[in-house]
Amino acid sequence: MGKRDFVVLFGGEAGYGVMSAGMMIAKAAVRNSMQAVVVNEYPSLIKGGLNNCLVRISDSPLTSFEETPDILGAVSQQAYELNVAKVRPGGVVFHDVGVKTDKVLPPAGVTLVPVQLVQTGSADMAKVMANSAVMGAFCALTDFSAEAVKAAITGEFANPVVQTKNLEIFEHTWQTVKAAQGAAGVKFPFALQPSPSPRMLLTGTDAVAMGALQAGCRFAAGYPMTPATGVLVYLADHAVEYGVVFKQAEDEIAAVNMLIGAGFAGVRALGATSGGGFSLMTEAVGFAAIAEVPLVILMAQRGGPSTGLPTRTMQADLNQVLYASQGEFARVIVAPGDVEECFTETFRAFNLAEKYQVPCFILTDKYLADSSVTQPFFDTKEMKIERGKLVDEAWLASHAPYLRYRLTEDGVSERAIPGQVGGRHVATSYTHGEDGFYSSGHKEYAANEQEITAAGIDKSFAKLPHILAEVPGIKLHGPAQADLTLIAWGSTKGAALEAMELAKEKGISVNLLQILYAAPFPAASVMEVLTKAKRTLLIEGNHTAQMGVLLRANTGFAADAQYLKYDSKPFTPSGIVRKIQEVMSK
Amino acid sequence: MGKRDFVVLFGGEAGYGVMSAGMMIAKAAVRNSMQAVVVNEYPSLIKGGLNNCLVRISDSPLTSFEETPDILGAVSQQAYELNVAKVRPGGVVFHDVGVKTDKVLPPAGVTLVPVQLVQTGSADMAKVMANSAVMGAFCALTDFSAEAVKAAITGEFANPVVQTKNLEIFEHTWQTVKAAQGAAGVKFPFALQPSPSPRMLLTGTDAVAMGALQAGCRFAAGYPMTPATGVLVYLADHAVEYGVVFKQAEDEIAAVNMLIGAGFAGVRALGATSGGGFSLMTEAVGFAAIAEVPLVILMAQRGGPSTGLPTRTMQADLNQVLYASQGEFARVIVAPGDVEECFTETFRAFNLAEKYQVPCFILTDKYLADSSVTQPFFDTKEMKIERGKLVDEAWLASHAPYLRYRLTEDGVSERAIPGQVGGRHVATSYTHGEDGFYSSGHKEYAANEQEITAAGIDKSFAKLPHILAEVPGIKLHGPAQADLTLIAWGSTKGAALEAMELAKEKGISVNLLQILYAAPFPAASVMEVLTKAKRTLLIEGNHTAQMGVLLRANTGFAADAQYLKYDSKPFTPSGIVRKIQEVMSK
Amino acid sequence: MSAKDFASAYTSTWCPGCGNYGILNALKKACAVLDLDLEQTVQVTGIGCAAKIAQYTNMYRIETLHGRTMPVATGVKLANHHLTVIVDGGDGDGMGLGMGHFVHTARRNLDISYFIHNNQVYGLTKGQTSPTSELGAVTKFSPAPLGNVERPINIVRLALSVGATFVARSYAGDLTHLTETMVAAVRHKGFSVVDILQPCVSFNKLNSYEWYQKRVYKLDTLDGYDSSNLSQALQIGAEWGERIPIGLFYQEKRMTLEESIPQLKDKTLAERPVGGADITALMQELA
Amino acid sequence: MSAKDFASAYTSTWCPGCGNYGILNALKKACAVLDLDLEQTVQVTGIGCAAKIAQYTNMYRIETLHGRTMPVATGVKLANHHLTVIVDGGDGDGMGLGMGHFVHTARRNLDISYFIHNNQVYGLTKGQTSPTSELGAVTKFSPAPLGNVERPINIVRLALSVGATFVARSYAGDLTHLTETMVAAVRHKGFSVVDILQPCVSFNKLNSYEWYQKRVYKLDTLDGYDSSNLSQALQIGAEWGERIPIGLFYQEKRMTLEESIPQLKDKTLAERPVGGADITALMQELA
Ligand SMILES: Cc1ncc(C[n+]2csc(CCOP(=O)(O)OP(=O)(O)O)c2C)c(N)n1
Ligand SMILES: Cc1ncc(C[n+]2csc(CCOP(=O)(O)OP(=O)(O)O)c2C)c(N)n1
Ligand code: SF4
Ligand code: SF4
Ligand SMILES: [Mg+2]
Ligand SMILES: [Mg+2]
Q1: Best of A52, A80, A103, A326 to disrupt the B interface by mutation (most B CBs within 10 Å)?
Q2: How far does the CA of residue B272 sit from the closest CA of chain D (Å)?
Q3: If pLDDT is split at 50, 70 and 90, which confidence band does A125 have?
Q4: Is the pTM value of this prediction over 0.90?
Q5: pLDDT in tens, B116-130
Q6: Closest by alpha carbon to A470, among A351, A335, A296?
């Protein structure tokens, strides 16, 4: 098998611009027909902590993190020490001349190249400019097209002075390294050529925000919380062009209640938060459900519990979202597995929220939110806005008296919004009758309070089969029949897909059952796949196998083996393949 | 079979004192060797809605609600109309003379007796005094001991004027009814005789509060929320005598964080709330867990979702408590099935919270919290305070440097509290190392962040087997072997126990698996029972069979049949027996 | 339209004599005076006795969670700023759980009218101390002999301090004054707060009709009271005891949040079409 | 003890030049001046750059949730009122999520010292608008050209309005003044609030050291400033612009919450034995 990918790792403390260097290399690659994945890792510190930017490039599809660099650029001592062991045999490490390499030796077969990366001049400037030096050294040592990178630099810096300065440093470093190094290096193995059609390098964050705009989202409210903040920043940045209002709230409770207010008033609205903020939204989730106000929230998981690890990844909040708020009601939880699904499923969530008048949650994680991958432009032609039973004044006029919570077969009632003639009603967080009136103990309701109570709950659950019928609850990847079926959800999809290919090369036939919707749980489609599965391996980024538990609770099915990871790092294809081999050798 | 119970139902709008009338009758009975259950039902209104007070009396144990009155006292039109159909054949209905009985006729074989219940005089007084008239009529029509009731009235009213007035009305009504009625009546079938030892008539609310005081709880914080408020009122009322401080907080978020502050400072503290307030406490639950601060919270369920039905009962918040807060950590959830367990398990919760340094939840519901039952005095001699690894200064001095979060086999570390010499440390909501220091990205931790992250989560889960080993996870009631095994939890226990007896009389052998601890889930003991069960019937007060799902998720076991009720009323023995017969006839 | 056109079909469940009846009557009268278009009006309430008012009126209404009126009203207003948005809630609702929202909503200055039914107690939960309860007040949560030991919140002073642009107090026992105050509050373009003194006959035996009747006096009986003078308002606003001023303490013209957002210039968000957005430019940004 | 005895063993991760260094130094110096018993002192912090200070000091510390310092500190203090309780947190932490708690804690007047590291921005989350951000401030959440449109909260004025009994402002760039202010705040018996102007060199380019240096002046340079005069404090407290006053605005002796609770007279709750309660009387009540 030929080389699948070329892996670049840049490391340095925040402020050295290693992330922007990595992104520029990736951009240069993507514009020239390559596929790239960029994964940034950084601690929850403003300065001082180590930032790593990993760039994987290939001429064939790449979907995941894999930390085996062919070349490492280390701007600082820490970046060198904590990363050098990861470099592949035959690889190259270039590091700032200030780095001491005698304390931690490189692996056998790895060459060290000292380079002047941190620049002279004012402290801050010197640091920032380091990114151009990193890129220069990188190109010199790999023969990656300097022209392509220079084009990326030119595109990046609008300010001509900064642009020129960066190009100079790039050029200078390139020259110096070329001159000094001679043979040392690791050649970039793929041929660059301009891409025939434009492709994006985009993150889950971008994709969710774009999906929301495509869906006609007009209002957003939120409070900063890593790793969800990006979506709010995106919408704030594009608010004026797209006729959107973003309101920063005083807390997440206010945010979600603003969204409910906007939803009640007929406007599509998006919230975005992470576990701690979602905890604060808990109560309002039930309010939206019982008042049947559409609600869409991006819930981006990070390391927990509690404040936990704000900038690290985990998949440990599924249960939180599944069971948030007292009582029982229908909800939708979709866990996109890649940026494309971030886009399409966010769009769908807005439709579902209005069609079924239920809270919808898009469950991502730090890794998916923050990592960039190559993505063709989205084809939006077939994407249809559906607002369900939102009625107009004509309908209202011919259906008086209007009952906002009319009991129907599919559990969905006609919805009127303020401003409409004939649609006046009360929406409420109390258990209520068809007209929204509170049922407990009022003379008008006392005699049939029990029926009303049960009917309200049944109404909510009546929606589920209809939702289930229209969503792509699962996806089966790979062969219909395989020796081993992986079960995964959310961002683990990427690593599992690559692992599937790797396993095939090793002669193991593997397929992947991706559970895309956690609620309503697609039990029937899941079992259709699993009853045919020979052996199963569940893969989740948490300690208690939350999806596995949900699966067993719904179907009685327990996977043959589990691969659980909760150390704050994403899954890798190689890690999964090792586990596959272990399982298959039993 | 002889008559098992005598059932009294008093109904009237709030303000007529039907609840206090019922309680006085029950007190009179309990002081005279009877067993009683008193169930109050009232809407979430201050005035106007119908209040029902159901009193069941027997000479043998009674554990549940059963709404088949032998005698109904209806103070108002609504009370008559909404209750009359419930009366047993042969029963009697006495009603205020103002009630019109022609619109809704009584069932066949039920006698109507009009009585002057609402008194003349100032409107408010007239209403309040109605309760003595109700009791007078009751005694006259049933030959229930007037002396016993008069003693209860005398005990109830400290103010001599009020006392005399009430006794007068009682006497007068008794006389009038006796004189007018002649043969009408339904005789109270049991013989009263003074109880040899004192017994209480107490609610789940009282029992939880008493358990907390017995456990040395010194601090409570909360915000009013039905049906949890009572516990806080109880503690506020006894604060001075028992050296307790109760702080009303501005919201439930403040309340739970005050509790955490107190717990950190070494004081046993109790919170009490219902679903909506618990939603607001969600975030802090994870904080307590990761900081390993003991936390005990009473979570009293009511009708949901959302604001729902504040004064009605349901068992639909188990999932909320099981999965509240982001991330994964150990927690304890005990669901007492009766007032005795409210007392003992609350006491135990305080021990567990300190021994394992975990959040502990006592899960009750409106029905259990509010209903009174006969209970002998608690025997507290064997109840031992256990504070686990709370260390003293001598220990600290000999174990420097102190590591607050030392990794240990049982997941529990030595705990020091402010004020102790040698115990200084930082407690934090971040993922942290053994000394509490935040691990992400700091130089001191960067190299082993992954290990620390996983170790922290493992530490929490290492506690579970130890907790499981010491708690009574389940209780098996009835014969070891039976044709049908009921599975129930929480307040459903009472109705299930009576149903078990009723079924036996009908020749069906039934036993009851009570799941007392929902977390850690006692999978092994549960399966020990269930593998021997011939047929199983799961009984829960919710729509989605939350405990059934938890059971299946943990063991793969699915019950043969389910009886789910979510109409805001408690289970009844007769309802369960009907279901048992249905299941056994299949 | 007359006041009765603003009532729902349902029987009220407030206690006989409750101050909420006066507030409901005044609100219906105010609606009539303002000739409010019911279809274009949203009433937002919380949870509590006060909040039940939404069951007895008949515009568009949303009975939210305890303490969350302000953000829901903010969402409604930003979604459709042509709507008239009226908020009703209790003192516990607004000054307990809702405190943070209140302060922030005030500084935002949306065009919302907030009527606080201030009975100085938690009514619906049967009588606990509220953030406005008097020092020494004996309730279920602050039993005798000590009573409440936390300094009560003076809603008027707080509203003034945090930037509300219309701050008034009225009294549920004075229908005319309350109606007029409500009318002025709704007419005010900006965040208006009305602290409504409301007797709770069941759980607040202290602050009764008689208690208020003896103390309440009208600001406009003060010589030269100037409702554009903030420091005077703060000073008189502090008065609470033998005499309790009611009336308009302060009014200020300040740009509302809606006005400051360019996206809301020509259309409401609700009027904009859903769908049809072209995201090509966004995709190009990332290519 | 000297200031260095109050430091933890860990490397700080604040940006070079961050105002938090000044605050940490002042706090350590203040601890030395006060000769604080470390074992009897609890520092409560929130989440944010400011809150990380708990990682660099060495008394008993609890780094709570974002916005929840006040209730945790309240719980600590009521559990053991002999402890010295110091709170540190950011402006977002205290005035955003924490607003409701702040207002209520102030009116309760516990003996707690609250140091607000006011950098007028959300630092740790990389630069969003805070409740104290200037009008027009451009941040990640309020992008150019409009910037922030919400009237900023003036912490000093707010604290004065809601009943804090010690209200001061100081500046992270003035070590001596800040140290003295902290010392006075901890010595004050009651709820003391210090609004600490703190440059954030990474995300707040507007309110820089130079910006403050030009504007800050000391209250005690004002002729006849009287820190027992609340209305004067409110008036001067409103000043914010070309000149920004620092110093002690207001101090008042008022009974603390702890003092008002009879159960806390002879012993702290923490000192009372756990167990041994006799509930017989309670059982008898119900028999
Ligand atoms: C989160 C939450 N906590 C508590 C409650 C219970 N609750 C309902 S109404 C109320 C207080 C009512 O007081 P107030 O707001 O002053 O209104 P009032 O009844 O006095 O009009 C409370 C505490 C709730 N519904 N939600
Ligand atoms: C409930 C919750 N929401 C959001 C966050 C994310 N968060 C962490 S720190 C912070 C703001 C920090 O701002 P500030 O309090 O002013 O402190 P600074 O970093 O500026 O010192 C936020 C929003 C959180 N941890 N918890
Ligand atoms: S409890 Fe008080 S506020 Fe509530 S309805 Fe009765 S009188 Fe009114
Ligand atoms: S981001 Fe600002 S507040 Fe945070 S450490 Fe850096 S300079 Fe200080
Ligand atoms: Mg109130
Ligand atoms: Mg800040």
Answers
A1: A326
A2: 16
A3: low
A4: yes
A5: 999 887 666 667 789
A6: A351
